[in-house]
Each structure stands twice: as C-alpha cells, then as structure tokens.
Amino acid sequence: MNRKKLFFYFLNSFLGLILVGSFRAGLFSGIEQFFEDILFSKKEINKDIVIIGIDNESIQKIGQWPWPRAVFAKALSNLEQYKPKSVGLDVIFPEASRIGEADDWALVRAMEGLKYPLVMPVEFTSVNIDGLHAFVERGAPLVKNLKIITDVSLTAPAHVNLILDRDGVVRRVPLWIEIADSSVINKALGLKTVESAGLRHRNSYPKESIERIVFAGPPGSFPMVPFWKVYEGNIDLPLLNKIIFIGSTAADLHDEKPTPFSRGTAMSGVEIQAEIANMILQDYKLAPISEGWLEFWIFFATLLPALLFSFSERPWKALGVNVVLGIFYNVAIIYLFGEGQVANIVHINLAWISGSLVSFAYHYFTVEKEKNHLRNLFSKYVSRDILEEMLRDPSKIKLGGDEKETTVFFSDVRGFTNLSEGLTPGQLVHFLNKYLTVMTDIALKKRGVVDKYIGDAIMAFWGAPLTNKMHAVDAVLTSLEMVTALKKFNEKSVSEGDPAIDIGIGLNSGKVIAGNMGSEQQFDYTVMGDTVNLASRLEGQTKTYGVHIIISQHTFDHLPAELIEKEKILIRELDRVKVKGKKLPVTIFEVVEREKEEAVKGILSDFEKARRFYYNGDWQEVKKITEDILKKLNDGPTRLLNERALYFIEHPPATWEGVYEFKTK
C-alpha cells in the first residue's frame, strides 16, 4: 500500500476518532434531541386509561379555581359507581382550605370511604441527577398534601416530578426518586397508579431510575372526561373499571409542558402521567444502544468512504454509493427507534457525510490531479481503453523507466522521396496527415501505444505502460489490418488525384526500458533497447524481401499456435540473417497479407524446400525450385532466394552457415 493511501486512511480514521470523542463528550445533544423528537410516531394507547380533566368548561360550571375540597370529595365519591382499578390524583392540597377546616375534613371523610386505590401526589422542589439515578437528600423540601389528607391515604404518595431538558422539553421521568441515606423511594405518579391497580407490567426497568418517556401521541390522545360531569354524577361516562388520572388540563392553570409530540402545543402534566402509565402497560421502551456499538458505528461510517473511494474507479460513483449508505443508516436509525433503541442521529450522519466529503475532496485533489497528469501525458498516443485502465489504477504505471516485455512496431512509406517531389509542402502534409490518421486509429484500436512519427514513419509498441500478455498478437493483427486498410486508402487517394503508396512493417518482441525519456523541461513516454533497434532493421528489410510485414523469431515465439489457427494467420519462415549492427543471427518470418494468403499457400511447400536447400548451400537446387515457383507466382522472397543462388553459384562463399549478413540497414 502506497503512502498516499495510508495517509488517506489515517485522515478518515482520525476524523472518526474526533467524532467518537464528540459523541462521548455529549456535543450536539440539543440538535440530537430535536431530530429524535421528529422520529416519534403514534402508538397504541391502552384502553384502560382515562383522564378526568379539570378543563375550562369545568371551571366555568363549578366556579373559580381553586375549588373547595368538598368538590373533590364529591367527585371521588361519585367515582365509586364506576369501580375504577385505581385513581391517580395530580392535584396537591398543601395548605388548609380557604373556606375552613370543615372543608378539609369533607375530603378526608370521602377518602376514608373509598373502595378503590387513590394515589396522592407530592413534588420535590429540587432533585439531584447522577447519570441515570435520581435522589434527594433526607429532609429535602417538597410540596405535599396536608397531614390529615396524607394520613388517610391508603397508598404511599407518588411524585409528579419531570425532567426538563435545556430546551424546556419533557423527555424523561425519574420512575422513582430515592431518599438519600434511607431505604425510602418515591415512585412516579404514573407508575404508582399502575401498580395500585394490581395490573401486571414489565419488571425490566434498569437499576437506574431515569427513563425516556415513550409518548404515544400528541396532546389530546387519551380519552378525556370533563371533571364537572363526574362531579354531577353522570352515569353514562366511559369510566367503568378504568385506570383514571385526575388533573388540570386548562391552559390558564399553567400545568403544561412541551413534549416531543407537542408541535407547538404543550401537554398537561396529568396527560404526561397518563403517557408514563401507558408506556409501562404497553411495554414501550426507549433506550440508547450500547455505547460500544454506537462508537463503532460512528467510526465505521467515517472510515468506509475512504475504502470505497480507494477501490472505486470514479469518485462520483463512490460518492453515490455513500449517499445510498447514508440513506440506509437513517432507515436503520428509524427502524431501531421504532424498536425502542436510540442511535445517535447527528453523529452517525456527521460521520458518513464528513467522511464522504473528506474522501471526495482528497480523491479529487490528489488522485484526480494525478489522473489528469496521466491523461495529458498519454491521451495523444494511447488508446482510450488503455488510458481508462491506467486511470483506474495509476499505481500500475511506473514512470521514469521500467523493464517491460513488449512488441515494437516500425512502419515506413516506400518511395517517400519521390512522393515528396511530386507534391507541394502543403499537399504533402495534408496527404501524410490522412495516412497517419488511418494507421494510428488502427494501432490505438488494437491497444497499441503510438510512440512517435518520424516523417512518414510510425513507431508504436504493445505491452507498456500496462502489461499485455497478448502484445505480439495485437501487433501482428494491427499490421495485417494496416496492410488491408492501405488498399482502401490508395483507392480513395487515386480517386482524389493523390498518389498510391506502399509500406513496410517490422516487428520484434523482447525486453525494453519503458518510461519518460528526455529533459526535465521536455520528455516523452517511449521504449528503448536492442529490441527497438532490431524492429527498425526488420522494417528496412521488407524492401529487400518484397513483402509488407516481417517479424522476428522473438515475436513468432510469442504467437500461440491455437490463436494463429483461430485468426487464420499465415506465417512463413523467410531467412536466417544478421542485420547491420548485430552480431547474432536471427530467424525472420513473413506475416502474409490477407490478399496473398491463397497464392502463397500454393507455393509454400516448394518455397520451404528451396529455403532448406538454401540453408544447406545447395545453390543449384535452390535455383531450380525457385525458377519453377516464379513461373507460377511473382513472389518477393522466392525471387530473392533465386538471386542469391545465382550469385553464390558464380561467387561461392568461403564459409556458409546458412546465415546471410546484411551490409546495409
């Protein structure tokens, strides 16, 4: 793995650690609460819960608040006919009645005669929060009922304390508050009322007392009966065998708090207690997922974009995949929330968004910059397919010099001097541009790299900068297609008044040094070595043999026999030679052009006999066979063998090893 990728992974990992640390520190908790509030959806409400509301209509009918205690005494007594399972009263009577002691005793006597559980409230003025544990000091101040009312209660009092977050929204409740240095605990009104009803409920609350309230709906979701109807003894009320909460719902009494469901409408305190009871009875729960798993999720969501950008061919594709992953993360968050598990929306989204942006920016300003450099460097002389493959993984290219196994190609126009004399400079340039365009397109289509143009000559190669095991095959097929295309080119040229031309092609395969060659100011990607030089020499000898394509033994050895058969390529051995500047002999072959394949096949057997006699120095047999062949076909290689046989008959060589040495290029 290169240093750039390591730094890339380190960058995203470091960002992930920052976000994990931010989560641990509780940053963005306000924004997190806002988004979690949006996820709340309506849930089923237990049919046993009903609220008796002290609403504006009841105040108008019964009279100014606070009401006499006798009003509550009568209403509580009237509830007997409905046989409630339990009643939670969210009204505190902390002081003596303003109309006299008899009024207080009216409530006490009514409470003494009740046959159903009545839960009375208290409220601590200050509650200590330690993590998820709520407690108060012994003797902590609280708002509670008159002693005579408390003494007659059949159940222990329950607190009505709620926890307001910094934005003033109620999201949590201490299900119980512990009295420090004692075994006394004070349960929430909603919990205590359910327990007093004797109903089974989940016992899976954690040791810690503070719990998220799972709100089942917006304000007004619970069945509500006006207090005045109970006071007047209306027998048609839907209160039979219910869990009943009595409390203020009138806005003027200011017992309302915003909740996640509020949407601008606060919820009365008594309905919040009903929500707590419903949560318990319905077994609803809302708790954060394991911190360890959440931290892993945040870190993973930050690091994953780096991995995707590293292995993706295009940055926009990787970015699109990350957007899809982001959608998946949020779908998972919503699903988990519905299942009672809270994932941190803000940090998970920050993770994949920031990870994607950092990865995209890094990729764009580093990898894309490198790709643009390669595109500018290679786009002029490599095929689009090779260029795209190089850009997919620039690390495959070792610029500056690398040993490669290649096939090198040289082609040249025959009689270029005569051609140039017959055309004006402008006409010559136009003509050559047309010719070079046709030939270049063929080379690029066959995955070749066009190295340079030397006047009318073309140098190209296969196997660099990207490794290509079929480099010799591609080069041979390119050469055959060029010769075929030349005929059509000549036909068109002649029709336009331009001359017809002929070309020769030389191919050689072997190891070269491929890389950027030149000065610091100007350089080109090219190949160098003996392989290149021999290819150039072979191209020059196509004139000598009267053929279009000559390949070396090295190239022939790289051509699989099954592929030669599949492509119907006809190859014949021509000679064993030493080219100028080379000491070692090399066997050369002709790749027969498509139009002459049938004719050459007709003489091939006789030609090979003549060549064997030629290698053995039997000049008379060579003369005899070649003369017979030339009567059938004007074949360049046969004519050359015949000429050499005639020469050696007159001028026998001092030594002969079957190798002809050229004195010219």
Distance between the first and last residues' Cα: 47 Å
Largest sheet: 9 strands, mixed
Sheet-strand content, in percent, reads 15-25%
Instruction: Give the % helix.
Output: 40-55%
Give the number of helices.
22
| Molecular shape | rod-shaped
The gyration radius over C-alpha positions equals 48 Å
Structural class: alpha/beta
Query: Which consecutive residue ranges, at least 5 long each, have pLDDT under 50?
Result: none
Mean pLDDT: 88
Number of strands: 28
Name the descriptors.
alpha/beta; Alpha-Beta Plaits; 47% helix; 19% strand
Question: Outline of this structure?
Answer:
The protein is of the alpha/beta class. The two termini are 47 Å apart.
Describe this structure in words.
This protein is an alpha/beta fold and 665 residues long. Among the domains are: 3-27 and 288-377, no CATH class; 44-124 and 141-158 and 189-206 and 218-283, no CATH class; 396-559, Nucleotide cyclase, GGDEF domain (Alpha-Beta Plaits, 2-Layer Sandwich), CATH 3.30.70.1230. It contains 22 helices and 28 strands. Strands 20, 21, 22, 23, 24, 25, 26, 27 and 28 form a 9-stranded mixed beta sheet that branches. A 5-stranded parallel beta sheet has the order 3-2-15-1-14. The protein has a 4-stranded mixed beta sheet with strand order 5-6-11-12. A hairpin with a 4-residue loop joins strand 23 and strand 24 (523-528). Helix 11 (315-338) packs antiparallel against helix 12 (345-378). The longest helix has 34 residues, at 345-378. The protein starts with a helix and ends with a strand. The model has no long low-confidence stretch (mean pLDDT 88).
